[in-house]
Amino acid sequence: MALTLHSHPFASFCQKVLVAFYENGTPFETVLVDLGDEASTAAFKALWPVGLMPVLVDDVRGRTLPESTIIMEYLDRFYPGATPLLPGDADTVLEVRLKDRFFDLYVQEPMQKIIADRLRPAGGRDPLGVAKARSVLATAYGMIEREMGARTWTAGEAFTLADCAAAPALHYAELVQPFGDDHPNLTAYLARLKARPSFARVQREAEPYAHFLPQDPDA
C-alpha cells in the first residue's frame, strides 16, 4: 500500500483528513497512534518529533507529510478522485483555503482550548482563556450563520477541502458550545455534513472512543 496514515479516529484533525480519503475512496492503511501508550508514542515521535497527528507516509513517492491541510492538498494533487478538494478556479481555490484556515483557527482551536481546560486539575484551570475561546466561537458561529444562508457548502455549491475541515470542527464545537436556536443556517449546515457518507463513516469509527471527550466540570 502506497499511503499510510498515522492517526487516531477520535482526533478532530485526523478526522478532517479521513473525510478527504473517504470522499474519493483513496486506498490507504492506518497506523493507530495511541499517545497513552509509551511504545506507540515513541514510534510516532520517531517519525514526527513534534508528536502531533496526523502524518501521512507515501512509500511510492518517498514523502512524509504532517499537517492536515498539507496532506489533503497532497492527496488532491497526486491521488485525485471524483471529488476535487481544491477546485480549478483561482478565486475559488483562495476561498477554499481561507475557509480551511477559518475552521482550523477560529473553530477547532478555541474548541480544543475548552476541551483541554477540562482536563486540567481544579487549581490549574484557565477561566479567562476559556471565556476568550467561547467568545471566538460565538463570533465564528455568527459569521458562518450569515454566510450559510445562501450556500450549500462553505465555499459555494461544491463540497471541498474546506468542508472536510468544517465537519469535525463544528461537530465537536457544537458539543462544547451548542449553536442555539438563533443559528438555523449553521445547524442545517452541520446536519448536511453529518449526512455526507464520508463524515458519517468517520463518526461511526469514532464512536468507540466517545468516552474520551471530557465533560464540563462546571455543568
Descriptive labels:
alpha+beta, Glutaredoxin, Glutathione S-transferase Yfyf (Class Pi), Chain A, domain 2, 2 domains, four-stranded mixed sheet, 8 helices, 4 strands
Describe the protein's architecture and organization:
The protein is of the alpha+beta class and 219 residues long. It folds into 2 domains: 76 residues, Glutaredoxin, CATH 3.40.30.10; 107 residues, Glutathione S-transferase Yfyf (Class Pi), Chain A, domain 2, CATH 1.20.1050. 56% of the residues lie in helices and 8% in strands. It has a 4-stranded mixed sheet with strand order 2-1-3-4, sandwiched between helices. Helix 4 runs antiparallel to helix 5 and helix 5 crosses helix 7. The N and C termini lie far apart (46 Å). The mean pLDDT is 95.
- The radius of gyration computed from the alpha-carbon positions, rounded to a whole number of angstroms, is 17 Å
Write out the strand line-up for the largest beta sheet, numbering strands in chain order: 2-1-3-4
Specify the CATH class of the largest domain.
Mainly Alpha
Return the string of H and E elements: EHEHEEHHHHHH
Helix-and-strand structural type = alpha+beta
Which consecutive residue ranges, at least 5 long each, have pLDDT under 50? none
Q: What's the CATH topology label of the largest domain? A: Glutathione S-transferase Yfyf (Class Pi), Chain A, domain 2
> How many DSSP-defined strands?
4
Task: Please report the distance between the alpha carbons of the first and last residues.
Answer: 46 Å
